[in-house]
Amino acid sequence: MMVEGENQRGETLIPSEGEGSGGQEAIHMKESVVEDNTEPDEGSRKPTTGPVVVTGNQKMPAIEKLEQVRKWSITTYKCTKQVLSEKMGRGSRTVDPELEARIDILRDDRRRYDHVTCLAQTLATQLAQVTQTQRTLGDAFTELSLKTPPLHVEFGLNGDTQRFLSKSGEVMVSAVNSFTSDMNTLVNKTIEDTMVNVKHYETDRVRCVHRYTATLPKLEQAQRTFQNQREKYEKSRNDLSVKLKLLEENKVKVLQHQLVLFHGAIASNSTSNHQHLELSLQQASTKLPMPGTEPPSWLEESSSPQ
């Protein structure tokens, strides 16, 4: 008699229905048990979908960033609102009258100095063009003096004069360029550096006007914030005051030196040109033939009696 069970090879033995009664042979059936322990290929795997879980370490920087953006947006909005309110005359303006007056003078000086610099640059450009024209004209006169013997003296004098004026103009252009270069440094670097302090001062001043008691939940926190902002405002005001004093002293020295040089260049150029022109006229009067000593013209010779 066979008992249902498994042999050592894992085969399942099932007894026949007529065993012991009909003498039928037992049917031995084998049932293979297959265990699939292989993993699917990576290409056949389907990506898992679902909610993304943010861990605590990743979550905190994002929250801090959002909080910083929120605070910055609130501060920017309040500062803009305060500035607009002041410009429209609806809000109180806490200022230092003396310092504000000096800032207004600085802004006006900067505008005027920039205008003078632009005019000087235009003058240098025009002088350079005139100088180039005088040089070309002088070369043309010299060439004509060589090719026109009867007018050799006249063309030669004009050629020398134009060449002298062109060289004098080059010196003048160099002097004007030096003036504009120093003026550009004063306006776009020295004064601009002070204007950066002015912007910081304006920002700290506007922030100092806020009443933080209405925006922060705790009075103590509001007081500390206000006090810190006031200290920043005081520091910006003191730094700006010192910067304005140094700028005023440096500005006077630079402008005084450059204005003297500019005037000297103009005067020297004008004087030297005037002297050269007078000398040229004297040379022309000695080289040119005296009236009445010129040979008779072809018309005069043809009309005279033989």
From TrEMBL:
One of the Pfam families matching this protein, by short name: Arfaptin
GO cellular component: trans-Golgi network membrane
Name this polypeptide is given: AH domain-containing protein
UniProt GO MF annotations: phospholipid binding; protein domain specific binding
Keywords, comma-separated and alphabetical: Coiled coil
Residue ranges of every copy of the AH domain listed in the record: 94-282
Example GO biological process: regulation of Arp2/3 complex-mediated actin nucleation
Compositional bias annotation for Low complexity: 295-306
Record-linked InterPro entries: AH/BAR_dom_sf (IPR027267), AH_dom (IPR010504), Arfaptin_fam (IPR030798)
Record PROSITE patterns: AH (PS50870)
Residue ranges, annotated region (Disordered): 1-55, 287-306
Coiled-coil stretches noted in the UniProt entry, renumbered to this chain: 219-250
